[in-house]
Amino acid sequence: MITDYGEIPDPIMTAIRNHVDHGRHVGSFTTAVLENDLATAVLRGDENSLRCLQAIVKYVYNDIPSRAWGSQEKVAKWRQNIAQLCESTSARHLTVAS
Q1: Domain boundaries defined on the chain
Q2: Which pLDDT does position 88 carry in this prediction?
Q3: In what helix (H) or strand (E) does residue 42 lie, and over which residues does it extend?
């Protein structure tokens, strides 16, 4: 299935990628989407984000790892795991560079 996610606002797409790739905390709307709390997402989203909510949810569901979204616990665990991975990678770089 090929889906065009071009309608997703760049700041939302960037926030999702920052969560997935770097374990970064993101805004309240995007966090609510990642935590599968769509009621909160609807309450916190601006007009542009809400207009694209279906595409955003499809992107999260189809294109990011299932371990990175779905509940508060899964989102927190993902961030923790990515942070640990980044720390160990940084430590390896420091060891190799020394």
Answers
A1: 10-97
A2: 73
A3: helix 38-44
